[in-house]
Amino acid sequence: MNAPLLRRIVIVGGGSAGWMTAAALSSLLGPKDVAITLVESDAIGTVGVGEATIPDILAFHRMLGVNEAEFMAATRATFKLGIEFVDWGAKGDRYIHPFGQHGVDMQGIDFHQYWLRAREDGATDPIEGYSLCAVAAQAGRFVLPDPNPRSVLSQIRYAYHFDATLYARFLRRYAETRGVVRVEGTVGEVGQDARGDIARLTLSDGRVVEGDFFFDCTGFRALLIGQTLDAGFVDWSPWLPCDTALAVPSAHAGAPTPYTRSTARDAGWQWRIPTQRRVGNGHIFASAFQSEDAARDVMLATLEAAPLADPRRITFRAGCRERFWQGNCIAIGLAAGFLEPLESTSIYLIQEGISRFISLFPRGDIPEILRTEYNRHMRTEFEQVRDFIILHYAATTRDDTPFWNYCRTMTLPDTLLHKIELFRETGRVFRYNDELFARPSWVAVMLGQGIMPTTSDPIVATLPADDVARSLASMREAMAAAVQRMPTHGEFLLRYCPAVAA
Hints:
alpha+beta, 15 helices, 21 strands, 35% helix
């Protein structure tokens, strides 16, 4: 006979990871079937630096049935059309990695091959001029996508910037209305059964919380998956040497832009994330190449407006768990691993960890094959995101500091080296294992940072140059005209989702 279903699920830790887990599970499991408890302490702060997202979060919100305008108003959110990278390939360079596609693929051949052909014929337009998201971002304009696939506005693809603390609060309200029970307290002891599975938590005041399955959302502490179950850690710091972040909010110096900005610095990079009420700033750097005082001075000197608090220091190590699911416990969020938020993937990896568990939802006996499949999938997800982030550091000509010399000359993972060499020799990019970043993303970053293919597609090379030029000009003009008709980003926010008071 089938083993009984899980009846008691316990989530340890709040923040985005904990409350996203609680919200997702409570949207699918009724409290009469499965009791969901979340244990957190107001005395333990959350990292909360991840305020930028990627478009996959829209699918998560659709699953929850969240009203977009209500969510955005509650979290003081703005729209995001992509990321602007400054000084990465070389000092003085600037490009946008937009969401969505470049141009329109023609005759089954990728659009960027036509752009490469036009470049061989003397064209000088950057490829981002053929991305509706990039053009709108640069113009500071926004509109929701048109559901009509024949409309140029159907190419709009977006995500959000929001206040991470308010997001956790928003999801907490959602989860609690669906039966999730929040327990305030700190964990003093983790009790295990004879098999080594987690059986109970004893809180510092003596209360006991028992469960059949546990989620570790305790951040870098990794209280369950690391300290208790010793699930191991894979260290990727040789490829991603940044290990410290300083974060500080600042006032707005103008209208909020519909994109994130990442500016390369002497030993790392600085983010700028505008929400409706403030701008989130941070400087991620490698402590082996720069002191904390120097990093703080650089960040404060380059803020666009006055800081609203003192900088917070966060230390980390790039990498992920050897096993994300150990026994009857899954690590979600920072407990599962950390990849710096250069491409805003932190919340995506939380979302993926939750959705993969749901797709493998076990009975009480938990066959080992489920753990194996979950761990295989999550390791692949982390490795593919890792490679994309490493690309930004490796694809550079910068040699002006020891940090950039290290990044420019480091040995790369074979998986990334293959992608770079294939693109440089042929201009081709292929997507493997349903990886997160599709062809347009790889093309945007590689071209943006100076990896230029030696040739274009040989089939495209047979087409008349005038025909290629006319097709590209028509796309570029249609996108520019569509953007001019859009409201400004600020106007759209005021009409659609003005921020509510905290």
